[in-house]
Amino acid sequence: MEMNINNMSSKEMLGYYLNKSYQDASEGKKRGELVCWSSSIAPCEFCETMGVHMLYPENHAAAVAARHGAEELLQVAESQGYSLDNCSYARINLAYMTVQNCVAENMPLPDFVLVCNNICETLIKWYENIAYELKVPIIMIDVPYNYEYEPSERSIDYIVAQFQEAIRQMEEICGRPFDYRRFEEVMEIALDSSHWWTKAMRLASATPSPLNGFDIFNYMALIVCMRGKTGCRDTFKKLAKELQAKIDRGEAAFKDGEKYRIMWDGIACWPYLSHNFKTLKALGINMTGSTYPRGWKLDYEKADLRSMAKAYTSVGNNLSLDAQIDLKVDVVNDYKCEGVTYHLNRSCKAMDFLFHEMQTTIAVRTGTPYITFDGDQSDPRNFSKAQFETRVQGLAEMMEQRGRVCNVRI
Amino acid sequence: MSGFNNILAKMREAIDNPRKVISDFENRTGKKAVGCFPPYVPEEIIHAAGLLPVGLWGGQVELNRVRAVLPAFACSIIQSIKEFEMKGEYDRLAAVVVPSSCDTLKAIGQKWSRAEVPCLQFVHPHNRSLAAAKEFLRGEYQHIRMQLEAITGEAITDDAISHSILIFNRHRQAMREFSQAAAGHPQIIDALTRHQVYKSAFFMEKEAHTSLVRELTELLNQEPVQPWQGIKAVVSGIMLEPDSVLEVFRDLNIAVICDDLVQESRQYRVDVSEEGEPLDCLAGMWQEMYGCSLAYEKEKSRVLMLRDMKEEYGADAVIIAMMKFCDPEEFDYPIIKKNMETYGIPLLQIEVDQQMQSTEQVRTRLQSFAEMIAQNAASSMS
Predict the structure, then answer these.
(1) Domain formed by B29-157, architecture
(2) Radius of gyration, CA atoms only, chain B
(3) Which of A200, A270, A266 is nearest to A10 (CA)?
(4) Band of pLDDT at residue B378, cut at 50, 70 and 90
(5) pLDDT band at A406 (very low <50, low <70, confident <90, very high)
(6) Which of A30, A59, A212, A250 has a CA between 20 and 30 Å from the CA of residue B324?
(7) Residue A201, pLDDT score
(8) What is the rounded average pLDDT for all residues in chain A?
(9) What does the alpha-carbon distance between residue A268 and residue B225 come to, in Å, rounded to a whole number?
(10) How is chain B split into domains, by residue range?
(11) Residues of B with CB below 8 A from A350's CB?
(12) Which of B108, B133, B327 lies closest to A86 in CB terms?
């Protein structure tokens, strides 16, 4: 049935397009079309150019966890020998690969995989295992860790050479020449999607915020899964329009008022999303800031592979400690956050191991209190509701205290 | 056995007193030591600068300071290195060199807190088969070279690096020859002794270590090969420590007949080419590396390599020494497990934690495993 997109809200569009991406991939697979599994901030432009269906195991694992279907897959992974200490997204996905059944949409197995380690090194091992087990080709864009503030020229040279190799591999896998004209079109769409995503997210900074911050976690699925498609661009264009209208009307996301605004550092606890949201909301805390808006702010010059390489390597966890601190200080300031919650995510060493330096420096530079809570992006066994509630209450008290001190000073 | 004992005593002395090794080196040369984090630091460049590369592999230390700055689920090597760093144990080093091979190492380089000891971080590329990867790594090594030159105030010439490559290749060869010789004599070279021969390499000048190891190998080769009544194991992983675990191996007559440990044989697997521009040769070695969880390889040649090692050395089993919280190794394990089951090769995973207080659990696991292998052997004989 033909849908009338124009009449849909951005939330409806989000649901429609996400569903469509899984459906299209499943149906395409049956017709013999190629399906690729990709890491979430890998350059989708190459596959999109060649009309390959793209699916995103990180997004899929999050959906499984949010629908409370993680544990059974985690147990399968553990029976295969995966350690409880490994990334739970990876464990869910590697188990799914075996059982091919889950509580969320089912994903057809890939004909090849695409991985970029701009998020973490774990992805390399995860995708190495997928490619080994399924005996499928792997396209890897290895972006060297930026231990200095800016990426080096030699790093950019190396990434560009890998883009060229990716194009060669795409031609080999697809059995036809790479379509450079279409590549430019896709780049333009991806850039537009990124632009409208960033713009919409930026509107959350208004006071009061028109966006319930936890919606970012939902909208994020689209920027992950469909950045190279017009549906993604159009959804965020619509969202930006909706948020601007709310700002113009002075309408807040929290009807009862937004008492505090915080930055959430780290991935969501998908199995407890609702609990986390309600706990915060009960205290009038809106999460206006996160690193996600910046995560897909992939801004580059169209048809310029060097510029594209720089964009893909300059992503969150791939930045030096100093650059990550600067980025997060900007989020706290730009989104007018009064406190920060750090999710000590048992699945993500890349994020966790710099927390100490980040927390202490960001607190000093922004004057905001912070808390840390133990959790996991998708293993429900690594989270305690009581601890989260207590810590968040503590944060609220610190923000309250700070507010009083500020008022006295004024 | 006095020849053996003298050599092994010198090695143990180096392991027990790395500070003395460094002091002696400083007094003799007027130059300092450089700390090398695992894995695969191009020590040849450090050696060519006239500095002493020493291995930083953590150790048994009470973890106090590190608890405030690093979650408990970082591997124990990094935990203990960080504890030593925060205690100022590394303050006499000229620098430390840190590869960014995993998420933990990336972070640890950024967390380095001793301003007086520069931290030289670098990256091994994953897309190793590409010419651009070699060129990138060459650039990383050039970057390290320039930073070392700035520290010493002296140029590191190509000739000096080429000369160091020769010295290190001789050492690699000596270590491989030792491994072969030791495999034939588990009665003399037990698991702990074997480990100490490898570990001492991190705290001695390469030339001196090569001489000692060669001497040891010659002595071993003069000894008759006797049948080994215990278990012969191939051990694979990052490292197998602490010593108390190796003592359990010794007690239970489990010989490490050959190894695929980063701290031991894995680092000596591939030589550096001696033909060509030296940094290019050093970078080329990474392209040749295989069978390592830290060197991306879709084919996972480690699986077949372990099977072949088991066959070649007539081993009874493969033991995975799993560094707790090591993602690269933990991701390889399910695939190794599945394949070893297919090949019918007995496999045991034991957890490695440098801060391990009690070995009882390991002892029980190894004992049961050894009994199972003995029973299988007996039933196949009958």
Answers:
(1) 3-Layer(aba) Sandwich (3.40)
(2) 20
(3) A200
(4) confident
(5) low
(6) A59
(7) 92
(8) 95
(9) 60
(10) 29-157
(11) 103, 106-107
(12) B327
